[in-house]
Amino acid sequence: MSGLLPDDQIAVLREQGFVVARQFVPAEQVAALRALAERHLQEHVAPIEYEADLRYPGAPESRTAEGGLTVRRLLSAYARDPLFAQWATDPRIAQWLARYFGEPAVLSTVHHNCVMTKHPAYGSLTGWHQDIRYWSFSDTDLVSCWLALGPETRNNGGLSFIPGSHAAAFTPDQFDDKKFFRDDAPQNAEWIARAVCPDLEAGDVVFFHCRTLHAAQGNRSDRVKLSVVHTYHPQSCHPIPDTRSASQPGVPLA
C-alpha cells in the first residue's frame, strides 16, 4: 500500500475499510508532534483520560491503585496546542478526504480528537468494536485519520483491522452489551480470523471507516506508543441535535 496514489488509496479504503498511507507526514513534523505529546504526557496536562477510568482488561482498578495514573488518552488535541490543531486541519488531510467524500470535510472535536497512548505496563486491551457504536450523525460515512508517532506493531499494541467489516450487516447478537464484537460467538470466528495488523512507521497514516471493526492488544515493548487520531465527516453530514456528537462544534477543513 506504500506506493499507492491517493485515488488508489481511496479505492482500498472503500473496499476493505482501511488503508495505510506510508510516510504521509514529514519526519520533522512527526518529531515535533511526538515531543509535544511526550511533554504533555510527562506533565499530565489536562484534559486526560486514564486507563483506570475505562477499566478495560489489563487496566488498574482505580486511579489510586498501583499504576492508577497511567494515561490512556490526552484529550482535546485540537484545542490542546496550535501544533495539534495545525495537524488536525492539515491541507493534505483536507484534500485526501475531499476526494473521498466528494465534498469538503469537517473535523469532529467530540470524537477521537486525541493522542492515544499505550504504555508497556497497565496499557489495556481494546476489544473488537466499531467506532460508530456511540456516535450520532445523520449519516455513517465518517473516516478517522490515525498518525503513528513511532513504530506500531502487534507487539506494542498496534491496531488490528478486519477487512470488509465496514460493509457487513451484523446482527445485535454478534455484539455484547457494551457493543463489543463478541469473540466467543461462533458466527464471529470467521470474521476475526481475517484480521490484519499493519506494521506502521513514524509518519505513516491509517485512514479507516467508522464501521470497520478494529482492536488492539497490550504493549509488550519497553516504550510508550503514541498516536494522534482525529475523525472527520462530510459537510453534508451533521451530528444529531441533543446528542454527545453535537456537544461541540466541528471545524470545517479548507
CATH superfamily heading:
q2cbj1_9rhob like domain
> Helix and strand succession?
HEHEHEHHHEEEEEHEEEE
Q: Mind telling me the CATH class?
A: Mainly Beta
Number of helices in the DSSP assignment: 7
| Secondary structure tally: strands | 12
- Compute the average pLDDT: 95
Biggest sheet record: 9 strands, antiparallel
Backbone shape: globular
Description:
It contains seven helices and twelve strands. The longest helix has 17 residues, at 27-43. It has helices at 6-16, 27-43, 51-54, 77-80, 82-88, 91-101, 186-193, and strands at residues 18-21, 48-50, 71-74, 105-108, 114-118, 126-129, 143-148, 159-161, 205-209, 214-216, 225-234, 251-252. It is an alpha+beta fold. The two termini are 27 Å apart. The chain is globular, with a radius of gyration of 17 Å. The mean pLDDT is 95.
Characteristic terms for this protein:
single chain; 254 residues; alpha+beta; Jelly Rolls; nine-stranded antiparallel β-sheet; globular; 2-oxoglutarate-dependent dioxygenase activity
Concise summary:
This protein is α+β, with helices and mostly antiparallel strands. It contains seven helices and twelve strands. The model has no long low-confidence stretch (mean pLDDT 95).
List the helices and strands and how they pair.
Layout: H1 6-16, E1 18-21, H2 27-43, E2 48-50, H3 51-54, E3 71-74, H4 77-80, H5 82-88, H6 91-101, E4 105-108, E5 114-118, E6 126-129, E7 143-148, E8 159-161, H7 186-193, E9 205-209, E10 214-216, E11 225-234, E12 251-252
Antiparallel strand pairs: 1-9, 2-3, 3-5, 4-11, 4-12, 5-11, 6-10, 7-9, 7-11, 8-10
EC number: 1.14.11.55
Pfam family, one: PhyH
InterPro entries: Phytyl_CoA_dOase-like
